# Entry
Amino acid sequence: MCRLFGFRSVIQSQVHRSLVEADNALSGLSTLHPDGWGVAYYIDGTPHVTRSASTALSDRVFQRVSGVVASETVLAHVRKATQGNNNVLNCHPFQHGRWVFAHNGDVPEFDTFRAALIAEIDPRLRRYILGDTDSEVVFFLVLTELLRFGPLSSRHERRDVVQALMSAIGRVRELCESDIPGAKPCLLTCILTDGEIMVANQGGKELYYSTHKRRCADRDVCPSLSEECEAPTKSGFVNHLIFSSQPLSGENIWLEMAEGAVVGVDGRMRLYHGAPKRHSLPVVVGV
# Structure
């Protein structure tokens, strides 16, 4: 399986520590997830994506990209291949227009269902599927659902993005799990963003999120410091949202997402919680 990292903030921030230096940073985890990496970040609303089939820990490009990236929105991934060959076309995040997507999980027996899944994708999008992974097909299924709410280049409401994501995931499960005796469940933990909206679904593989710290190290100099930076939000808005497959060391307070839960923010950084099957569990790291 793979590992995910997603970051959305009201201010541009560097993510080198989260990707390279922290305990459970993606760089270190790549020793167990050696089949490629990718980092997507947004500049002036435009995604920039760097991917490689190399192992992140030993790749100087990963170290360099992680060191220079400063953005309000970042999505990163290290891959342990379950479907598809080890090449750059199969590395996450996947990008189409403003939309970027990364997946941790597996669609068992994907080759059996690939044709049926691709048949569900809007014909205008099929030609952009360049690799042979289940993850890329799921991404274009999400975009197909999103088209129901308007052109992909237009601004979408958070509720529409969540609906598109969950509809696509539901369709994958319907095609690949229903009425198949002994079928293994699809694992569809993923993060989707257009640089403003960012939403994540815990689809069977672990995912944590953080919206505040015990104490912000930049509290004396940060112009955007608010109560929500150091405590659970009372206003419904947050200054940052971080997703990680494993809690990172440091001051952040981490919450474990329950299976089936959806968490995200809209362009105004209003926090959204979907309906999990159980309550999130607080995880305090770095005490």
Q: What stands out?
A: DSSP finds seven helices and 14 strands in the chain.
